[in-house]
């Protein structure tokens, strides 16, 4: 402990000794300062000081920047320093002798005259004399002593008999005080102007006036018009003749004939250009209706969470499945014969991305899109985000160096419009536009069809085939009630070949069961976070 205390004490002593020279550097006083200033024809002020120093070195802070107006600072550039050291705006004098330096930016044109203003002497100084000569006759003089904003006149100011030299005198300047001299010359004596640097202020960086407002409006018009032109030329669906096909029936002579032979998952992706939850749910129902799997509703108590069992059917012709249907079928069962909806996680979630990719590939294979809709959206959204980034960078630079920061915001707005508009950029081909027109007609049929035009013997089978499409078009309640009203002979029955209810269940309850099944299945799929939720 004693040894540690000694070491700490030694460290404190060394620290004090190390700090002592710093105090010594500012312990001196300038007893006399004889300053000669010469304003050259090019507007550069040459300053020469004969300094008598008492004590140690003196560090003086030169005023090199002042406020000029609301948006600019005035800068005084000091260069060519001799006899002292300049670090930033601190001039350090280490002994008696001569100090010289040049100042650029000390002249201001004022109507019919020019004004030289410089902070000639900085305290502490006991006695200072400043003489000023220039390229013309001195017209007027003034001086101020004390703090920078002081309006107190200096000890003395005069002009010699020839009118070519101005002399100023000041007694007793303390630390932080200065002697400011002002000399007037005829207009054109130097032709110099102040050196200005823009000062960043948020209030001026986004100035709205006739110029910035007009430029902003024009830039927004050009950029947003460009986004609109991109959509018009790249994002619009191909135009087709007689696109409005009217109501399109889903059967012919009592047989199921969907428009263009499309399946529910395909219709969903064609319709909204998204491979999403509802497309997968409708495909599960469609696979059941077509005999690839069976949906069983287990018995449950009043407060049990609804659940369903999906059962693989061994004789199903899997070779007739489309790639996205096969991917979904394998994701559901994955080596098992039955699975509850509540158990659709793990490997099922891992395989959903393959189902989604297969759906997007399918709509391209069908010739409905020239490119995958998701790839088109991603590309345009990425471009939009990049434009937003460029807009943010442009906004920062314009706001920092100019008053046109609003123009950068126009680029940000255009980028946001492009990123948002990228969701609408997938364009259907002529074949895709025709299929969509037929799909819209089929949707109209499902929403308003008269079931009486279908023979009773075909109603149960036919309307069951409609159900997956009704899931896509949100008319499942109507068609589930219709299915629950018929069987092949026009009478009520207890079960369907593809849907089995619990004991004491019949088709009168099918509408409620089907509605709850679609909601539960969609929830089970969306928890995998591979698809857009409902």
| Helical proportion, percent range | 25-40%
The general outline is: rod-shaped
Residue ranges: pLDDT <50 for 5 or more in a row?
A: 1-26
Structural class computed from helices and strand pairing:
alpha+beta
- Rounded mean pLDDT is 82
What is the C-alpha radius of gyration, as a whole number of Å?
A: 44 Å
The total of helices stands at: 13
How many runs of DSSP E, i.e. beta strands?
23
Distance between the termini: 72 Å
Q: Sketch the major β-sheet.
A: 7 strands, mixed
- Major sheet strand order: 6-9-2-1-12-15-14
Strand content: 15-25%
Structure description:
With 534 residues, this protein is an alpha+beta fold. It is built from 13 helices and 23 strands. Strands 6-9-2-1-12-15-14 form a 7-stranded mixed sheet, with no helix packed on it. Strands 10-11-16-13 form a 4-stranded antiparallel sheet, with no helix packed on it. Helix 4 packs across helix 7 (347-365). The chain is rod-shaped and about 130 Å long. Residues 1-26 have low confidence and may be disordered.
